Amino acid sequence: MDVFRTVDGMQNHADAVRASGQTLGLVPTLGALHEGHFALLRRALQEADHVTASVFVNPTQFGPDEDYDAYPRDLEGDREKLESLGVDAMFAPSVDEMYPFLNEAPFGQPLAWVDVDRLDEHLCGAYREGHFRGVATVVTKLFHACKPDVAVFGKKDAQQYVILQRLVEDLLFDIEIVGVPTVRADDGLAVSSRNAYLSDDERAQATVLHEALQAAKTEIERGEQAPQAVVETMDEVLAAAPDADVQYAEVVDARTLQPADHLRPGQRVIAALAVFFGDTRLIDNVFVDVPTET
Ligand code: PAF
């Protein structure tokens, strides 16, 4: 497996793959790779002839109170995992390589940003100011560096997935965005690097996220058209976990990410949750099609 630390090196590799008439898949990651990433990588290997995984802890998507410095980094471990999966290239740039002007006087920050308006108003975006601007900006840079035909993202980060789909549509990127279903433990808990921070008791309680979302899905599929009623159902299920501190439980349109007063037959919606157990914040969601006939 090739390892590229510079944008130039990465672009030369991408140009060579493309010149040979083969397709390139990209799986952007923050590293600390786990089963959830493996599902994305396996999908990318099905979708494209060559697969690049980027491993970059992107400073611009972390808020001042978030865990940028503490975020787990294990480049050598990640390299071994990628190699054993059959990935062709790892792109692991430094912060200076990706953001040459991050600390440069007089501005001390990049001046060009990519912002996808409106889609960050609800869900995680309401609590993580600037997060999705950082994500959209770094993913745009990764697209320019890695030149993929297809890029694969997890639907566990539903808001990110929808925002990036809109990004490529609005900015005319010739890149297909593929969303991969969330990988879950046997009891339904979504796989996340943050699960490791849960105590045994919190881990046992954390299954309420999946249970609440399944209850929401069942209720919508049985014909409930009042989002508020669906949110109340999720809150009731979550209340069974004494240590669950709910940040949000929402039902939004799957394309606009706006809440609705009333669910329309045929509409695709996302029921989504963010729940704290102590300092550990877990998110999860489910995409649901509102039935056309009830
Ligand atoms: O989902 C992630 O891991 C990150 O937000 C991404 C897409 C790699 C951008 O830094």
Mean pLDDT: 97
Based on secondary structure, the structural category is alpha/beta
Number of strands: 9
Spans of 5+ residues with little confidence (pLDDT < 50)? none
N/C terminus separation: 53 Å
Main-sheet strand order equals 1-4-3-2-5-6
Which compounds are bound in this model?
Answer: pantoate
CATH architecture of the largest domain: 3-Layer(aba) Sandwich
CATH hierarchy class name of the largest domain: Alpha Beta
SSE order: EHEHEHEHHEHEHHHEEE
What is the CATH topology assignment of the largest domain? Answer: Rossmann fold
Beta-strand percentage?
15-25%
| Number of alpha- plus pi-helical segments | 9
C-alpha geometry: globular
Q: How helical, in percent, are the residues?
A: 25-40%
Number of domains: 2
Radius of gyration: 20 Å
Largest beta-sheet characterization: 6 strands, parallel
CATH superfamily of the largest domain: HUPs
Briefly say what this structure is:
By secondary structure, the protein is an alpha/beta fold. Helices cover 35% and strands 20% of the residues. The protein has helices spanning 7-19, 35-47, 75-85, 95-98, 131-146, 158-170, 200-205, 207-221, 227-238; strands at residues 2-4, 24-29, 50-55, 89-91, 150-154, 176-180, 244-253, 268-277, 280-289.
